[in-house]
């Protein structure tokens, strides 16, 4: 993909662009959001006609040996599309799709809510084709596409004097209604192995999971049969149910480390024997409760238009 898709323009709609990188002792996540799923303001105002472009956000997180080093979540009332549709600009941060297929994400923000300046850059060189776009739940307007399931990655966090290379992953989600309205939750994980990357998307209410497999034989998308037995789960300190183990196929990679934990969202990671798993658990209906929306304000910086 060398150009941005159309941005959403109706109340409750959203589109975001996600990327992560694993590089030695470091891992990092970049997300550019139009209609931010982390925004308590968007959640509260949708019924009054709030538009996704009024609630854009940039999220960046840096981890070292599984411990959070930096967290950025900055919300802006607008975004811009530049360079003949190849660049998304939110505040001072930007996402660019180059004509040669390279993906660049640059973050120039401050830690939430009142922290130090952060400058970070991720460059992805895709090594496999993009997957086809998949509808998460039949009949519901929510879609996911693995844009660069496996990529050569370079991470530079200029404000932390970090410069490392590793394996990257990039995808995008979009939908025409607020998450939590009819799609209550999901969890997903991507597994980088020595030669192949596998991404599994687990959905609620008996919906068969999705899988993308990417490697030397290309990229394959499929809807998998439901597991005959549910895999074990555990509760976080917030009472959010997360996988008790992270898997590569049927192989246990390890007990997930909680990179981020909140009442409605968790980011998890496990590594073992050349396998690296990172994933997310989200309960959108929890997020829309007034108390949790109030708590979310303390993890966010609200910025003026750039």
UniProtKB/TrEMBL annotation:
It comes from the Bacteria. This is Carotenoid 1,2-hydratase. It comes from Archangium minus.
């Amino acid at each position: 993909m060398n150009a941005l898709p159309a941005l959403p323009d109706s109340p409750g709609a959203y589109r975001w662009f996600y990327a992560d990188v694993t590089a030695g002792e470091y891992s990092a996540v970049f997300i550019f959001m139009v209609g931010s799923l982390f925004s308590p303001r968007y959640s509260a105002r949708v019924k009054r006609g709030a538009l996704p472009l009024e609630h854009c956000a940039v999220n960046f997180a840096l981890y070292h040996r599984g411990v959070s080093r930096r967290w950025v979540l900055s919300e802006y009332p607008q975004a811009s599309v530049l360079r003949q549709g190849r660049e998304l600009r939110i505040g001072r941060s930007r996402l660019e799709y180059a004509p040669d297929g390279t993906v660049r994400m640059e973050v120039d923000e401050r830690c939430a809510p009142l922290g130090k300046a952060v400058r970070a850059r991720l460059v992805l060189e895709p090594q496999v084709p993009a997957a086809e776009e998949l509808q998460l739940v039949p009949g519901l307007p929510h879609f996911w596409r693995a844009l660069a399931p496996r990529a050569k990655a370079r991470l530079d966090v200029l404000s932390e004097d970090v410069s490392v290379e590793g394996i990257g992953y990039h995808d995008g989600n979009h939908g025409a209604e607020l998450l939590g309205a009819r799609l209550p939750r999901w969890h997903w994980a991507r597994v980088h192995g020595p030669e192949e990357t596998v991404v599994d998307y687990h959905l609620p209410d008996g919906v068969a999971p999705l899988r993308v497999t990417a490697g030397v034989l290309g990229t394959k998308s499929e809807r998998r049969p439901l597991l005959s037995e549910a895999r074990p789960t555990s509760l976080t300190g917030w009472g959010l149910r997360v996988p008790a183990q992270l898997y590569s196929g049927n192989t246990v990679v390890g007990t997930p480390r909680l990179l981020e934990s909140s009442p409605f969202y968790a980011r998890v990671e496990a590594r073992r024997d050349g396998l690296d798993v990172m994933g997310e658990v989200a309960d959108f209906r929890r997020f829309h409760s007034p108390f949790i929306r109030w708590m979310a304000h303390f993890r966010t910086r609200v910025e003026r238009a750039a």
